[in-house]
Amino acid sequence: MIIFIAIVLVAAIAASVLLGTAGSLQQKALTTGKQTQQEVSSGIQVVGLSATDGSNGDIENFEMLVKLSAGSDPLSMNDTTITFDVKNNSQTMTRGSIGNSTNFNMTYPKTGPDYLPDYISVGDVLNVKFSSLSSIGQSQTVKLKIIPKRGVIVPIEFVTPDVMSTLRVAVYP
Fold first, then answer.
1. For 41-172, which CATH superfamily applies?
2. Which of 13, 32, 33, 105 is most buried per CB count within 10 Å?
3. pTM for this one?
């Protein structure tokens, strides 16, 4: 009888350890699943990209209209990085003053119902402005990446027009 009671006690202790471990693993799986869903479904969509002052045949200043992709959670623009690569130059930009060529600046031409300052939320349209470290001439390939802290990286590649002679030059899409 004593051996039977000991076996039952050992089985009960083992079962409680297994149940505790299973509960902990379930909680970690739910957390990981939620983070993965945010990572995959959150992103920024580029509506248009244009350059200013192309009248002299080269461009340096850019304006990009962006909005949140469908089904995305709000994204912090303070945690977003933009990389800008041309033939002989590469730069990484973070949020800041437009006077500094390693930073980008943004304004809200339109805000949505869930507007949060420094975030892009559902219904928001952002005008992101930045400058290239060097002049970009005609028929040059430019690669741009928008890298949010969480979410999908947005790669953009375009070739500048063969002839640039106007003040505003549309480069993407």
1. Immunoglobulins (2.60.40.10)
2. 105
3. 0.72
